[in-house]
Input
Amino acid sequence: MTTDDFYAIAPSARASWRLVILMGRNARTYKFALGDALLQRASQGHTEIPLRDLAAPYAMAILERQAPQAPGSEAGLGATDFLTVAAQESAESRRLGRPTDRLLDAAERSMPGMVMEKFHNHGGSPVPHSFYEVVGRGRHRTVRLSSALGRVARSYEREGLRTELDARWSIVESSFATGIGRSLLKEGVHVDRDTLYITERHRRRPVTGVAGAVAGFQHGRCHICDESLDGDRPAVDHVFPHALMRRYAGVNGWHGPDLDSLWNLAVAHAKCNGEKSDRMPTPAELIRLARRNEAIMRSPERLHTTLRLTLKNAIPGRRISDWRTFLREVGKACA
Ligand SMILES: [Zn+2]
Output
């Protein structure tokens, strides 16, 4: 699956947004802070604002996410200056509930080179929709917010995209947490069965809810009925019912892969999930699950790793490389 396939399933400004936020590479997390600020301003009905008006929610979003990360070479133009100032102005800005003038100056100066020029890039080319344009120079720069951003921001009022952004941010941020070596990052994540939270495999520390982390890869649609999840508090469905593991727990044991793992957990309306109960998935649901898992495999870290390891290890002696084959094999194990 290419990212074009992801877009083609539901071509819309929201799909472009998800390419940027959920599937873009993130050496650092500024993209999420900018996304957050853009949604905030566009949802207030703005269509053209001074760069400084965008810099305020951007800077606060970074401060709210705890300590600004240490400057690194990959952080981009202006990052060192911005992060140094952010660290120095953090306490005072928090006290005020808004960025200090000095922090605002630093954010305004650094944003274009640090994050705004690259925001729309995905895999070397721009996503199909543009969400803003920076016009003017120096202190007179303004940001024109596009109609595509307006459409996305109206979805934002229903909270779904905001939840997805937060979840991805948490996952990326936990990857940067101190004390985690590169080797541990290769081990993916674990889902806590009781809380349905994604946790770090080793520290068992909750990172984010499964629903927030995967809904966007399903285009915000219910896995069971394929309608929008908007306006409903979603449930997490075991696509192959968890009861299978109990049913087979007797004589020969369950030989399939772990059904409490990310590959088998999809987001659905609570009502659809309740009606489905312990039945087996339909062919249409399996196609949607395969596509969803392919989409997650396109995201850069941790969730991707988790699914890659599932494909590699779940069925001993078989080298399976695609999700449709994998799901067919699991279906056979249940027959
Ligand atoms: Zn549904």
Observations:
- The two ends are 28 Å apart (CA to CA).
- The beta strands are 48-50, 121-122, 125-126, 132-135, 142-145, 189-192, 197-200, 206-209, 235-238, 265-268.
- Residues 158-334 form one domain.
- The first strand starts at residue 48 and ends at 50.
